[in-house]
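Q: What residues go here?
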């Protein structure tokens, strides 16, 4: 099991025997540098997902980036950058406002809770907004859905997405 320790800026691993160790980053050393897991730095990681190849995907909320830790222990930035915003784009051209929870859909795309929006990042690192409006915090579904601070995110076996926010639990099909 892996745990994103937001306040210590590390990714921790917990073995089935309960042994806890630092997997990536350095305790209490915030940053946004890539490289070997032991020298890479994170800034308030907040969400984790494991892709089909066994790589760990990280929502690094303080640096506003999506990062990957390979099975070989190499950390790289896949999307986003230090400037806040809600901009769709490819790789480092994309911008995030408030990164949080992550989940993978059945096609290997990464779903990203980003403040009041749900974003999708393809395996080619193309980020698009699929639900919600940046800066709006009312909750409603329908033809023009609105979200409020996504704090839980999961994909059901049938492909429907379940979101929890401060105000509601929603289930929806994504476009």
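A:
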């Amino acid at each position: 099991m892996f745990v994103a320790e937001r306040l210590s800026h590390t990714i921790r691993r917990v073995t089935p025997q309960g042994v806890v160790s630092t997997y990536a980053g350095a305790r209490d050393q915030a940053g946004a540098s890539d490289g070997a897991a032991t020298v890479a730095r994170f800034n308030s990681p907040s969400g984790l997902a494991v892709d089909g190849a066994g790589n760990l995907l990280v929502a690094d909320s303080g640096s506003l980036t999506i990062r990957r830790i390979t099975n070989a222990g190499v950390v790289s930035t896949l999307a986003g950058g230090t400037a806040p915003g809600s901009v769709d784009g490819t790789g480092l051209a994309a911008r995030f406002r408030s990164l949080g929870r992550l989940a993978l859909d059945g096609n290997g795309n990464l779903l990203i809770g980003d403040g009041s929006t749900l974003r999708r990042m393809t395996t080619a690192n193309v980020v698009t907004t699929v639900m919600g409006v940046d800066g709006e915090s009312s909750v409603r579904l329908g033809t023009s859905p609105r979200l409020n601070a996504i704090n839980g995110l999961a994909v059901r076996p049938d492909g429907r997405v379940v979101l929890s926010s401060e105000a509601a639990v929603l289930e929806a099909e994504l476009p």
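A: Context that may help when evaluating the design: The mean pLDDT is 91. The chain has no helices and 16 strands.
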